[in-house]
């Protein structure tokens, strides 16, 4: 119906739809990668936290609290960096598609 009413408007709508589809298709891999990297970093920090909790008495006895905290802090910074990157990608994606 739109094509019969206005060919110019129909072509513009078709071009915009095609651009939107290409954008969604091209950003799919980026979205997947950012989410995957964040999940990997979260997995690493969870394993460090679990190990620290399971060996808390040994850590206290040997006086390694500061070293364990520094190690955990490095993992936390990595997680937050990946979270920030994923958030930026998602914000850009949502802004472009809405």
From TrEMBL:
Keywords: Membrane, Transmembrane, Transmembrane helix. It comes from the Bacteria. The chain crosses the membrane at residues 6-25. One of its GO terms (cellular component) is plasma membrane. The keyword Transmembrane helix applies. Its main location: membrane. It is found in: Cell membrane. SUPFAM superfamilies: ABC transporter transmembrane region (SSF90123). It is a multi-pass membrane protein. Residues 1-98 form the ABC transmembrane type-1 domain. One of its GO terms (molecular function) is ABC-type transporter activity. This is ABC transmembrane type-1 domain-containing protein. It comes from Streptococcus pneumoniae.
